[in-house]
Here is the input.
Amino acid sequence: MISLALYQPEIPANTGTLIRLSACLNVTLHIIGPTGFAMNERALKRAGMDYSDMTKTVMHRSAEDFLHAVAWERPRLILATTKAQTAYTDVSYAGNDLIIMGRESAGAPDWLHKRADMRVRIPLVSKARSLNLAVSASMIVGEALRQTRQFAG
Here is the structure.
């Protein structure tokens, strides 16, 4: 199954939006800590509305814990970054790809760029820096689900 990971998310509303996406599209959501906000059940419920109970959200205390937890699945790690050359639409997605989004303020650290199997970007007009994290993740996950025919329902 296609899955999504958020590396040290900082904005609860983005995380909440992606909790909802995860629930509605049956995509596992990995949240890699530490986060920039409290990740208690109350905060998650508020951010994810009433979708928190429907989602497959897995919390990881650190990047090392995350990498260890997903290692047995051997997913292809696809990093979404403005620094990539390959457009997300020019990729042939596989059924167990794991799409990783960096921090809202700083993106992904260098070690994650090196660890990723592939890096993709969303082509933007020349004056634009980036899209909102939740919007970007939704676009890339949607394309991966479309290609692998994993849309729910």
User: Anything to note?
Assistant: The two ends are 14 Å apart (CA to CA).
